[in-house]
């Protein structure tokens, strides 16, 4: 049978369109003083959001529509992958976090509070503990598995330095999913299903992105991918092979283990040179006329309260994750100025290994250098023609650096890493038994044996996607939304002073609404100039302009936000052409 | 043109149906020990939710679907009424609440917290301050008004005694809307539009409800209606006239100001009688054989630290709101036992006005009594044949009682109040300038004069609707969902042991999905008995049973959850008949 669908399936039925005059889109001429970065400024100027407190924003109707579109794409793909939506509370009792050990481990980003009776709670930044507690109480048998449960929820992380609007906020919307399986093999399948779903989600959002191998961080587990939206403003550095599929966060990227290259060991005479006021690699390199790769940086770290020195080549960066693993430390961070000055007996900027009485860990690449440059542990001085062994000794040579563009690929023969900047919008983790074993989330297998479930967890930053889309899609005039995320698909701009234009625009508006196109109809009693400015700022992908001159010739103007010029289309064709373009652009994503 | 709607309007596209074997519906045989009331127990037993902490629940997939349906009905009707959806943060800086004065006034139900830098926040239980702050920054002109802005959000109120599951929780989902107008007349129109939208929302939810006049409470303002779902288990007492439209919360209900009835003043002799152990109205009434209406209760209150006595007839209740207004107190509450014992020199239960050295406020109805009974301020004793004036004096006679069933209507001639119990699911408030004046939320009118906006605010308890629907619609076996709120519209129960039954059920399942009907397909490898038990508990309105015997005769069974018996329908007609019934039941709401 072919009955029409029933009227009230559980979906939010939005008015497809809105009249600008009856909406609430307070655009601003200037970005607010505190705006950091493109998306932050444009979201505020475009009337998408307003700041309530540091890293905490109200989403105005336009912003809310963008979030709803992102959420619905996520929902559709999660449901398609067999995940089930639920909703856990924001307030989580401390007991559960104490049971997992995260109450003490999580640090000050966890927003903690007490209720009126003095009971301790946190506002859950992720919900592993809550979902494990649910599942361990209600799931007993292998027959009830696999399960993949997800929610879309406002989360809170009390960032020390919230920045750049939605890119690093304190209150933000996240989709978090958790899978439960009977075995590692089954759990890897669940992981792969989420990996695939994430690819579909970000593609449908119209984003240029890349899945990269990543560190498992505070969540834990043994396998992890980040989904990075590529944008120059991205906070994360990524390397990707130009020959094979390998891509990774620089923190995680593998380095090819080459043999030491045995530099020719014609040691020059150690020489102290004056480098007045030259502290950075760039300054010293320029002043001495020595390439950065021939300099060696000496960095002082505090590892669980003890000072250590780390040497890496001037063009490399220390990988703190590797250092932490090497030292087996609970916490490491770069030493403050006063610690550096005490250890080196010199101002900051002139640290070096010669005569330094700290454990010295040197990156493997330092072993390949001869006659390099280091700081002299003395103000305004460096050493040149420095050589390991002759001039100082190291505690150990280890792989201690980040991968860098130009490094040979660790996975394939012959590829080279290229560098990218990315914004992390999704992260999938293979957790194994990290939570299920300590929290006794077990099941009975076919033979009646009790086993811990094997878990994965999967996050998407809903609010961050909105910002990342703008970082990737904008110009000097404003936002250029991908069709799937735009708050409306089409904006009609009409010359409100001309009754014939208003009549034609009304007709096109009605036609587009009948065709199911979402229209923002700028019917404000304003001149065309400010309307165009607002349209460019707001960034709706297609604009239909109904002006006096074209209309007199039976035409209206159609312009894609990305195109330099508008084109004329016959008034009678406008609705059909616009609807076709909307469809085509959605289908292309 | 008649093109099909575009594929990706911003609506959540759920899978219409679900297989029980692949879902997560952990039903329980017994309600948990802590369950209070019908909906609390059934929501947990039916696998709709689980408790995380007192008054804090996780919504499992079935529960989430019910909430999504409620939210979407609310969205559609709010949008239809011209309101615009947005989303404000949960964490609200203390400064805004200090500006409105509510930071001090709100009391311990406000969940307060500090961030890592020591800044004070609350988790906003309502958002008047945040929305006023938004609007005052961006709206300047009468041309930008009216505005009605709403959100659907998880809220937190730190209730002293969370109870009965979703009926009085601590974390709950609320729709809150705020209107801004240029004048009182325009604001009254916005109020009326919301009043009307609320009627449509609760009707579409399939609820039997009643709008009643209400107190404005802590929100403030001058006009207010509650929307009460009628249910015996309701926490709120309501009176409604049997002759006119008037209905009100008993706290707010007006009383007809009748002339004092001048009782015949044949005073009997004051007599002290022994009433050993009889303390309550019921006990004294039964022991002395005197109707409750001939007894007078003496209640001791603490009004801003001072004790006062209040007299009302034995069958009436003190209206604390009226008492508070009369005394002009900031806070009143019933005195504790030790205060009562000190004031009356007697154990609790024997207080009376004779010889009492407190201000005595008596309800007007007490004036109409002669020869009544009061406590003797002495253990195990009451007075009878008591008369005001002769035996004691009052400080004042005032209207101090709640309305009660049987009272004459205050609005019409000749009607009488009937009593109901209700669950408050919505509340509309006319706020006037209560927030806009102190927070300087102003606009410029046509003549350029600056005026405060005139506001209203409008709440709906999303989670409470789910519970109220169950309180109103259940039987001994479980829930009976209204069609519009049911997590699925139809459940198919199949005899999994019989391959022909499975084939027929698969076919009907596919047909219903094609017809857009939402189906829960119980394909579990279980006997029919437990499947029926679960189906009754979960409460999906229509059930299709595919069993061996009926199928052999070319039929399946169709049963409404409310009907005592199933009926047979031809297998070939099943899909059409079921789809028709779903449509009919949705249309009837």
Domain count of chain A, please report it: 3
Tell me the greatest interface: A-B, 94 and 94 residues
CATH superfamily of the largest domain in chain A: Bira Bifunctional Protein, Domain 2
Rg of chain A to the nearest angstrom?
Answer: 29 Å
Helix residue percentage of chain A:
25-40%
Assembly type of the chains comes to homodimer
Residue windows where pLDDT falls under 50 for at least 5 positions of chain A? 1-14
Q: What can you tell me about this protein's structure?
A:
The structure is a homodimer of 589-residue chains. The first copy, chain A, has 14 helices and 32 strands. Chain A has three domains: 27-253 and 420-471, Bira Bifunctional Protein, Domain 2 (BirA Bifunctional Protein, domain 2, 2-Layer Sandwich), CATH 3.30.930; 271-398, YbaK/aminoacyl-tRNA synthetase-associated domain (YbaK protein), CATH 3.90.960.10; 488-588, Anticodon-binding domain (Rossmann fold). In chain A, the strands form eight sheets. In chain A, strands 4, 8, 9, 10, 11, 12, 13, 22 and 25 form a nine-stranded mixed sheet that branches. In chain A, helix 1 crosses helix 10 (462-472) and helix 2 (61-80) runs antiparallel to helix 6 (184-204). The model of chain A is unreliable at 1-14 (pLDDT under 50). By secondary structure, chain A is of the alpha+beta class. In chain A, a hairpin with a 5-residue loop joins strand 23 (442-444) and strand 24. Chain A starts with 17 loop residues before the first strand and ends with a helix. Helices cover 26% and strands 28% of the residues of chain A. Chains A and B meet through strand 2, strand 3, helix 2, strand 4 and strand 5 of A and strand 2, strand 3, helix 2, strand 4 and strand 5 of B.
């Amino acid at each position: 049978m072919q009955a029409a669908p029933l009227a009230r399936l559980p979906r939010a039925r939005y008015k497809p369109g809105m009249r600008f005059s009856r909406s609430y889109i307070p655009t601003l001429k200037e970005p607010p003083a505190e705006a950091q970065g493109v998306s932050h400024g444009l979201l505020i100027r475009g009337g998408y959001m307003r700041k309530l407190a540091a890293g905490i924003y109200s989403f105005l109707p336009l912003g809310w529509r963008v979030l709803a579109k992102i959420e619905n794409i996520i929902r559709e793909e999660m449901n398609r992958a067999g995940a089930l939506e639920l909703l856990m509370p924001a307030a989580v009792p401390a007991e559960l976090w104490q049971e997992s050990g995260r109450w003490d481990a999580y640090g000050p980003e966890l927003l903690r509070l007490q209720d009126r009776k003095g009971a301790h709670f946190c506002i859950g930044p992720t919900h592993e503990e809550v979902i494990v507690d649910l599942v361990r109480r209600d799931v007993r048998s292998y027959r009830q598995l696999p399960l993949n449960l997800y929610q879309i929820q406002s989360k809170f992380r009390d960032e020390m330095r919230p920045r750049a609007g939605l890119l690093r906020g304190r209150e933000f919307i996240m989709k978090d999913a958790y899978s439960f399986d009977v075995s590692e093999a089954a759990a890897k399948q669940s992981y792969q299903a989420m990996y695939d779903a994430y690819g579909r989600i970000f593609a449908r959002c119209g984003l240029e992105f890349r899945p990269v191998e990543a560190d498992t961080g505070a969540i834990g587990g043994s396998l992890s991918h980040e989904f990075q939206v590529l944008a120059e403003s991205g906070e994360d550095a990524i390397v990707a092979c130009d020959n094979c599929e390998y891509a990774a966060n620089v923190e995680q990227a593998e380095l090819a283990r080459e043999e030491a290259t045995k530099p020719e060991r014609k040691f020059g005479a150690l020489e102290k040179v004056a480098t007045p006021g030259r502290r950075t690699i760039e300054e010293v390199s320029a002043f001495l006329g020595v390439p950065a790769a021939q300099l060696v940086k000496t960095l002082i770290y505090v590892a669980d309260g003890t000072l250590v020195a780390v040497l890496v080549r001037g063009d490399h960066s220390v990988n703190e994750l590797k250092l932490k693993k090497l030292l087996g430390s609970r916490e490491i961070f770069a030493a403050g100025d006063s610690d550096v000055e005490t250890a080196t007996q010199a101002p900051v900027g002139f640290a070096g290994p010669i005569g330094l009485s700290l454990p010295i860990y040197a990156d493997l690449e330092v072993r390949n250098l001869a006659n390099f440059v280091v700081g002299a542990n003395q103000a305004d001085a460096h050493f040149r023609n420095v050589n390991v062994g002759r001039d100082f000794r190291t505690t150990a040579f280890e792989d201690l650096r980040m991968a860098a563009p130009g490094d040979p690929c660790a996975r394939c023969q012959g590829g080279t890493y290229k560098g990218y900047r990315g914004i992390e919008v999704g992260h999938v983790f293979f957790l194994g038994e990290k939570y299920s074993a300590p929290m006794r989330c077990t099941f009975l297998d076919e033979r009646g044996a009790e086993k811990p479930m094997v878990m994965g967890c999967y996050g998407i930053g809903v609010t961050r996607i909105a910002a990342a889309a703008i970082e990737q899609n904008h110009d000097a005039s404003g936002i250029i939304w991908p069709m799937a995320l735009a708050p409306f698909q089409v904006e009609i701009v009409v010359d409100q002073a001309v009754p014939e234009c208003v009549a034609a625009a009304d007709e096109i508006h009605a036609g587009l609404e009948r065709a199911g196109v979402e229209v923002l109809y700028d019917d404000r009693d304003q001149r065309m100039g400010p309307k165009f400015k607002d349209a460019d700022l707001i960034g709706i992908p297609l604009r239909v302009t109904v002006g006096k001159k074209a209309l007199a010739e039976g035409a209206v103007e159609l312009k894609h936000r990305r195109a330099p010029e508008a084109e004329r289309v016959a008034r009678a064709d406008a609705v059909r052409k616009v609807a076709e373009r909307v469809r085509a652009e959605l289908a292309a994503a």
